[in-house]
Design brief:
This is Serpin family protein. By secondary structure, this protein is α+β, with helices and mostly antiparallel strands. It contains nine helices and 15 strands. A hairpin with a 2-residue loop joins strand 6 and strand 7. The longest helix is centred in the middle third of the chain and has 15 residues. It starts with a helix and ends with a strand.
C-alpha cells in the first residue's frame, strides 16, 4: 500500500493548513470519491486522476480500498461500526451510461439517486446533506453549504464514511490526568490517558511509531517526531513512513496520550491541482464514461471528524465532487512515550493499509 500512503501524504502536504493548527481528513473518503470520478472519466481527465491517486487504472483504486470497507466483528466485546456509502446523485434528466452503473455497483455501499438539481437546487443540497448525515451518524450534518448546488449543477459523486471502534484494550479512565502539552501557543495542561503494555513500536528516521490495535482489524498509529512537527512533517515521505511501519515490533511501552477531538473541512480543487488534476475542472474535462452530456467538476468539498478517548475512536468523513454541464518473563523497562507535543495520528485498516483518517494534533485542548 505504498501507493496509497504516497497519495495520502502528497495530498496532506498540500491540503493541511499552517503547522500550528490541528487538522484531520480522510484519505479513504477522498480516494473513494476520486476513484468514482476516475471510473466516470476518459482521456487526459482520467489519466490525471490516476496519476494523483498513484494507480494504474480505476479498478486498482477500487481494489485497494474495498478490503477496508469491512471490519471483523470478532475478538471484541463491542463490535466495530463501519459504514461506507458511495453515491451517484444525478439530475432526473441526465442520461447515465449503463456501463458506469455496473462499475459503480462494484463499489462498497454503492447507490444511485436522482434529485431535482435544476428545478430545486437547495432542496437537492438538503437531500445530499441528509444522506451524508445518516451515514455519518450526524457527525457531518451539512457537507454542502448553501449555494453549493446551483441550477447548473447536474450531478454529484459522494463518499461518506463512519467508523467507531474500541481499543483491543481500553485505557483506564481513572488513570487519565491533566498533563503538560507543549502546543505552538505555549504549554497547557490537557487530559492525558496512560497505559503500560506491549505495543507495536519502532523508532527510525527521526520518528517514533506506536501502534494501538483496535477492534475488527483496525489500528491507530501514533507518529511522534523527534524534532518539531512543523519541521518534520513536510519531510515525511511515503517510503519513510512505509519503512517505519514495517519496523514495528512488540515492545513494552509506557504511553501517555492526550484525548483529542479534531474537525476540519476543505475544498480540494487547488490541492489536487498541485498533484496534476487540472483538466477535470475545465471545459475540456472528459466524463464520457458517465454520460454523453459534457460535464466538468465544479468543486470537491471534504469534511472530517476524529475523536479519540479511553474507550476507542470515532470518526466520520465525507467528500463530494460536484459536477456541472460545461456548456450549459521479567518484563523489560517500558519505553516511555509521553505525547506532550504536536503529533500525527493515523487510523487505518491493518491488513490492506488503507488510511481511514490522517490527523495532525497541535493542541488537544
Amino acid at each position: 500500500m505504498t501507493e496509497h500512503l504516497d497519495f495520502s501524504l502528497a495530498l496532506h502536504h498540500r491540503l493541511a493548513p499552517a503547522p500550528d493548527r490541528s487538522f484531520t481528513w480522510s484519505p479513504y473518503s477522498v480516494a473513494s470519491a476520486l476513484g468514482l470520478a476516475t471510473a466516470a472519466a476518459a482521456g487526459d481527465t482520467r489519466d490525471e486522476l490516476l496519476t494523483a491517486l498513484r494507480a494504474p487504472d480505476p479498478e486498482a483504486v477500487r481494489g485497494a480500498l474495498s478490503p477496508a470497507a469491512e471490519l471483523s466483528a470478532t475478538g471484541s466485546a463491542e463490535a466495530p461500526v463501519l459504514a461506507v456509502a458511495n453515491t451517484l446523485w444525478a439530475h432526473d434528466g441526465l442520461p447515465v451510461r449503463e456501463e458506469f452503473l455496473r462499475t459503480l455497483g462494484q463499489w462498497p455501499g454503492s447507490a444511485v439517486r436522482t434529485a431535482p438539481f435544476r428545478d430545486d437546487p437547495d432542496g437537492t443540497r438538503r437531500l445530499i446533506n441528509a444522506d451524508v448525515a445518516e451515514t455519518t451518524r450526524d457527525l457531518i450534518p451539512e457537507l454542502l453549504d448553501p449555494g453549493a448546488v446551483d441550477p447548473e449543477t447536474v450531478a454529484a459523486l459522494v463518499n461518506a464514511l463512519y467508523l467507531k471502534v474500541s481499543w483491543r484494550e481500553a485505557f483506564d479512565a481513572k488513570r487519565t490526568t491533566e498533563q503538560p502539552f507543549h502546543a505552538p501557543g505555549g504549554q497547557r495542561a490537557v487530559p492525558t490517558m496512560t497505559t503500560t503494555r506491549s505495543l507495536g513500536y519502532a523508532a527510525a528516521g527521526g520518528w517514533q511509531a506506536i501502534a494501538l490495535p483496535a477492534a475488527g482489524g483496525a489500528e491507530a498509529v501514533l507518529l511522534l517526531p523527534d524534532e518539531d512537527l512543523a519541521t518534520a512533517e513536510p519531510e515525511l515521505s511515503a517510503a519513510d513512513l512505509d519503512a517505519l511501519l514495517a519496523q514495528r515490533r512488540d515492545q513494552r511501552v509506557e504511553l501517555f496520550l492526550p484525548r483529542f477531538d479534531v474537525t476540519a473541512e476543505a475544498e480540494l480543487t487547488e490541492p489536487l491541482g498541485a498533484l496534476g488534476v487540472r483538466t477535470a475542472f475545465t471545459p475540456g474535462a472528459d466524463f464520457s464514461a458517465l454520460t454523453e452530456a459534457p460535464l466538468k467538476i465544479s468543486a470537491i468539498v471534504h469534511q472530517a471528524v476524529l475523536r479519540v478517548d479511553e474507550a476507542g475512536l470515532e470518526g466520520a468523513a465525507a467528500t463530494a465532487a460536484m459536477m456541472r454541464l460545461t456548456a450549459i518473563v521479567r518484563e523489560p523497562d517500558p519505553i516511555r512515550v509521553r505525547v506532550d507535543r504536536p503529533f500525527l495520528f493515523l487510523v487505518r485498516h491493518r491488513e490492506s493499509g488503507a488510511v481511514y483518517f490522517l490527523a495532525r494534533v497541535t493542541d488537544p485542548s
